[in-house]
Amino acid sequence: MSAQRARLGVLISGGGSNLQALLDAAGQADFPAEVACVVSNMPTAYGLERARKAGVRAEVVDHKGFASKADFEAALHGVLADAGVQWVCLAGFMRLVSADFLKHFPGRVLNIHPSLLPAFPGLHAQRQALERGVKVAGCTVHFVDAGTDTGPIIAQAAVPVLAQDDEASLSARILAEEHRLYPLAVRLAVTGAVTLDGMRTRVDAIVTGDGAALRSPGAPK
Ligand code: GAR
User: Fold this and answer.
1) Where along this sequence does the record place binding of (6R)-10-formyltetrahydrofolate (predicted)?
2) 121 in ligand 1 pocket by Cβ < 6 Å?
3) Mind listing the pLDDT tens digit for each residue in 29-55?
4) What is the pLDDT of residue 209?
5) What atom in ligand 1 is closest to the CA of residue 14?
6) Which atom in ligand 1 lies closest to the alpha carbon of residue 113?
7) Looking at residue 194, what DSSP letter applies?
8) For 166-201, what is each residue's pLDDT tens digit?
9) Which residues are CB-neighbours of 54 under 8 A, at least 6 positions away?
10) In which element (H, E) is residue 195 found?
11) Which fold has domain 1-106?
12) Pair 184, 157: CB distance under 8 Å
């Protein structure tokens, strides 16, 4: 019999393409986690549809329906607990979670952010990168702490910023990497291959890749 798979709760606010990447990964027999439920704070989020299509429980907990953040998070936790969730993945979830919420899942809340943190935390990370003129951008999966995009980094992927890029084209290039990175980071986290070491993480896994640098702009031919 295969080992018990970790039960993920995925929190979304929108399209849910990262959720889809996790659902697709969970569809593989050797992936060490399953998506136990999806919760959106936005009733119209397309990600809810993705969850239903995958046969996964999908719930709306609309922050607007609660008098306080504490009440909203209590409802959120209620759904996650009811679904037996062990790990929480924020996937385009556009609400900050509080330290009190994190206490329910100590060291077990992950987030994906479309920048090479600690650069460009917060909203519109890709726009911030373009405005600052960086030549390499990317995405980060990190453990969530009570700050905004500040928690210990698990994994990152880099992409070049091209001269002709606008926010849409750069976002699309980063998003494609997000879809590869999030399942990898979840695998590392739930199998215990990544552990916390203060503000850093230690990754105890076979590292692939040849260590080659990404240069942007590339060398002339
Ligand atoms: C992704 O680019 C994700 O990194 C970003 O929102 C998008 C959600 O797309 N998250 C943040 O900016 C959080 N600070 P998706 O709904 O298609 O996964």
Assistant:
1) 69, 94-97, 111
2) no
3) 999 999 999 999 999 999 999 999 999
4) 74
5) 16
6) 4
7) E
8) 999 999 999 999 999 999 999 999 999 999 988 999
9) 23, 27, 35
10) strand 194-197
11) Rossmann fold (3.40.50)
12) no
User: Residues with catalytic annotation?
Assistant: 113
Rounded Cα gap, residues 63 and 206, in angstroms: 41
Task: Please report where in the chains the tokens 């995009």 appear, as a residue.
Answer: 149
Query: Closest residue (by CA) to atom 8 of ligand 1?
Result: 92
Domain with CATH 3.40.50.170 in the chain: 1-106, 114-139+148-221
- 171: tokens are 């976002």
Q: What are phi and psi of 214, to 5 degrees?
A: -95, 120
Tokens of 149: 């995009």
Q: What is the DSSP string of 62-120?
A: -GGG-SSHHHHHHHHHHHHHHTT--EEEESS--SPPPHHHHTTSTT-EEEEESS-TTSS
Helix then strand count (H, E) for the chain reads 6, 9
Residues within the annotated binding site for (6R)-10-formyltetrahydrofolate? Answer: 69, 94-97, 111
